[in-house]
Amino acid sequence: xxxxxxxxxxxxxxxxxxxxxxxICDLRIGQPCETLRCWLETAECTxxxxxxxxxxxxxxxxxxxxxxxxxxxxCELLEGNYEPYAAQHEADVEGWPTEESCFVPxxxxxxxxxxxxxxxxxxxxCGSADAIPHLVWIEDxxx
Length: 143
Description:
The chain is α+β, with helices and mostly antiparallel strands. The chain has helices spanning about 5-10, 35-40, 65-80, 110-120, 140; strands spanning about 15-20, 25, 45-50, 85-90, 100-105, 125-130, 135. A hairpin with a 5-residue loop joins strand 6 (about 125-130) and strand 7 (about 135).
């Protein structure tokens, strides 16, 4: 799961859409989102992550398999006493399908990376109360 400039560029050229009770937040890596910041403040959350089980290793997988893996991830989050919200990863470029994801408030970067690693992911999107999403490579978090 080596980080490549092409893979990083693809992740950076993605909208990470979060469906919160108060509305939709479209997140971009490195760009603050005032709507999310306000929601995090109101919810008294100091950190968050977006985690998907779709397409491990950024390799396309059959939709039925992706759906089953995503359901397993959601169950694991609920069993871990997290409250995940629906999210999607929407690539700017044509040819890559929208991926279901989970927006997870109050999950540590370390826990998010460990969970994503279990599902074969290259990276997760993490952030803090400032609502600036950051791309975190799994290989970097394991060092």
